[in-house]
Amino acid sequence: MTSRFDGIGMTSMRTRSRMVERLRERGIRDEELLAVMGSVPRHLFVDEALASRAYEDIPLPLGFGQTISSPYTVARMTEVLRNGRALKKVLEVGTGCGYQTAVLARLAKEVYSVERIGELLKRARTIFRDLRIYNVRLKHGDGQQGIPEAAPFDGIIVTAAIPHVPRALTEQLEVGGRMVLPLGAQEQVLYLIERTECGARETVLESVKFVPLVPGVVS
Ligand code: SAH
Q1: Contact at 8 Å (CB) between 72 and 26?
Q2: Contact at 8 Å (CB) between 178 and 80?
Q3: Which of 115, 190, 208 to mutate to test the pocket of ligand 1 (most atoms within 8 A of CB)?
Q4: 69 lines ligand 1 (CB under 6 A)
Q5: 149: which DSSP letter?
Q6: Does this UniProt record's set of keywords contain Transcription regulation (predicted)?
Q7: Which letter, b or e, does each residue of 179-203 get, where b requires 16 or more Cβ atoms within 10 Å of its Cβ?
Q8: Residue 206's beta-bridge partner residues?
Q9: Where are the domains of the chain?
Q10: Could you tell me which residues come within 8 angstroms of residue 202 by beta carbon, excluding any fewer than 6 positions away?
Q11: Quick one: pLDDT at residue 3?
Q12: Paired strand residues for 136
């Protein structure tokens, strides 16, 4: 009997290591992260019809007009977020299909992830259970508010484009913590915010393309 887990079987292991090689060629250096991306079965997070394309370096539709970021974007954001540190408690805004969440879950002690579309959360929850990922707390809500009751976080990652840095999120970052987010509307750039003793330091990284952050929740 075959299941979605055998999925594309050995081929998926091979395609995964090819994906990791491409990430290395494009400049990703964090070996711990590369090992995790080589182990998380990305094809389980996309629609079955798209599973064969899951390891190409492209964003894919995940339903509800949303997209799963390309492997390179996931790698780049996670590398900047981690900066070689072991992460304790990370907040993700925009769970989507849960792939980025799963990568974070293997690199951090605890991951909190907020998603505004209830149906996406339900799907992600099922995959986490199947993959035996137990250190993720999912919340249905508007991620701009963060999760004050779980703060502070040593890492925050926003996976939808936002016009300005939400004050609530900077406040939920611990001193020494790092936040990575796509800022802007049509033209977007990746921003790194580092929380310091006396405020926050901002660094502009590269141009990116994300779906916009939308206020409010839907079921
Ligand atoms: N990390 C995701 C990216 C999904 S796309 C993945 O790899 O699949 C961005 C996601 O952000 C979408 O699922 C969208 O519904 C969600 N989103 C948009 N605005 C939001 C908000 N205000 N709060 C929480 N999630 C939001």
Answers
A1: yes
A2: yes
A3: 115
A4: yes
A5: G
A6: no
A7: bbbbbbeeebebbbbbbeeeeeeee
A8: none
A9: 63-208
A10: 165, 191, 192, 193
A11: 53
A12: 111
CATH class of 63-208: alpha beta
Cβ–ligand 1 distance for 120 under 6 Å, the answer: yes
Three-class DSSP category at 153:
strand
Average pLDDT over residues 26-51: 95
- 111, 212 Cβ separation under 8 angstroms: no
CA-closest candidate to residue 43, choices 153, 131, 152: 131
Q: Say if residues 135 and 102 touch (Cβ distance below 8 Å).
A: no
The amino acid sitting at 183 is L
pLDDT of residue 7: 53
Q: How far apart are the first and last CA of the chain?
A: 35
User: What does the pLDDT average to over 195-207?
Assistant: 95
Residue 70: active-site member: no
* Whole-prediction pTM: 0.95
Residue pair 43/12 in contact (Cβ under 8 Å)? The answer is yes
CA angle (28, 185, 213) in 5-degree steps: 80
Backbone angles phi, psi at 139, to 5 degrees: -130, 135
Q: Give the integer Cα–Cα distance in Å for 136 and 109.
A: 9
